[in-house]
Amino acid sequence: MADFPSKVSTETSVSQPHSSQPARMAGPITVQLDVSFIKSIPGILMVVEMLLGLIQWALIASVNYGWAPAFIWVMFVAVGLWITTTILYVMTLFSIQQRLTGLPWPILVGRETFALLLKAFGAFVTLAYGASTFFSFLSWREDGGSPPTTTVPT
């Protein structure tokens, strides 16, 4: 018990974190243009999606909303998905997703593509109506292309 004071240290210390370096992104921050993505099928498809989406929401914006408030929701979805596609395209083009390793990129892109597919069912219906109109026009031309002689059924 006589050697007790010599074995005890009275100095205090502050606990240090495991690493003295602050958390950082993986790698230095540099802008790198991925030219191979521009020429790839997913890159080309995203450009087509952005162009068609821009045309789509421009056409929706030209509609008078007074008689159908549901168009506001359609506009929200169209613009939201267009913005999401544009952001994902830019992030992939500049390889930002490689620096943010904590996010599951294939799942994020898959969710966005699935949402676009759900929105694209409206396009399939429009194509079906267009095809029906085309075949009705062909049938009308086969009948001589003239208006009916009577408009009242007998």
From TrEMBL:
<feature type="domain" description="MARVEL">
    <location>
        <begin position="37"/>
        <end position="154"/>
    </location>
</feature>
<dbReference type="GO" id="GO:0016324">
    <property type="term" value="C:apical plasma membrane"/>
</dbReference>
<feature type="transmembrane region" description="Helical">
    <location>
        <begin position="44"/>
        <end position="65"/>
    </location>
</feature>
<keyword id="KW-0472">Membrane</keyword>
<feature type="transmembrane region" description="Helical">
    <location>
        <begin position="116"/>
        <end position="138"/>
    </location>
</feature>
<protein>
    <submittedName>
        <fullName>Plasmolipin</fullName>
    </submittedName>
</protein>
<dbReference type="InterPro" id="IPR050578">
    <property type="entry name" value="MARVEL-CKLF_proteins"/>
</dbReference>
<dbReference type="InterPro" id="IPR008253">
    <property type="entry name" value="Marvel"/>
</dbReference>
<feature type="region of interest" description="Disordered">
    <location>
        <begin position="1"/>
        <end position="24"/>
    </location>
</feature>
<feature type="compositionally biased region" description="Polar residues">
    <location>
        <begin position="7"/>
        <end position="22"/>
    </location>
</feature>
<dbReference type="GO" id="GO:0048546">
    <property type="term" value="P:digestive tract morphogenesis"/>
</dbReference>
<dbReference type="GO" id="GO:0005768">
    <property type="term" value="C:endosome"/>
</dbReference>
<keyword id="KW-1133">Transmembrane helix</keyword>
<dbReference type="Pfam" id="PF01284">
    <property type="entry name" value="MARVEL"/>
</dbReference>
<dbReference type="GO" id="GO:0030100">
    <property type="term" value="P:regulation of endocytosis"/>
</dbReference>
<dbReference type="GO" id="GO:0019911">
    <property type="term" value="F:structural constituent of myelin sheath"/>
</dbReference>
<dbReference type="GO" id="GO:0042552">
    <property type="term" value="P:myelination"/>
</dbReference>
<comment type="similarity">
    <text>Belongs to the MAL family.</text>
</comment>
<keyword id="KW-0812">Transmembrane</keyword>
<feature type="transmembrane region" description="Helical">
    <location>
        <begin position="71"/>
        <end position="96"/>
    </location>
</feature>
